[in-house]
Amino acid sequence: MTLFERIIAREIPADLIHEDEHCVAIQDINPQAPVHFLVIPKTVIPRIAEASPGQEALLGHLLRTAAEIARQQGLEEGGFRIVINNGRDGGETVPHLHVHVLGGRSMTWPPG
After folding, report:
1. Which end of the chain is more exposed for a tag (fewer CB within 10 A), N or C?
2. Is residue 112 part of a domain?
3. Which residues are catalytic, by number?
4. Model confidence band, residue 33 (pLDDT cutoffs 50, 70, 90)
5. Within a domain: residue 108?
């Protein structure tokens, strides 16, 4: 069971900022920006490269949810960054797809 499955099951506490039938959103425990939260599907998808065509609606829901929470957090005007890590070289540390949303400061490019 992944860390995120345990958070969804309420076995591990987390700072929950959103929940619906498809996903949860939590504050990142190691924020890299003034605003940094994760949107996590309740359905386990190990990584974006393993998502199936039948999961397209869920993937769209994750992005729309990320944008809505970003708006609620006051990031709409200044902007925000959405990141999905895939694989070791992509920075993936938990094998459960999740969307990082970062904002509240200017982002640089390339991201590092």
Report:
1. C
2. no
3. 98
4. very high
5. no
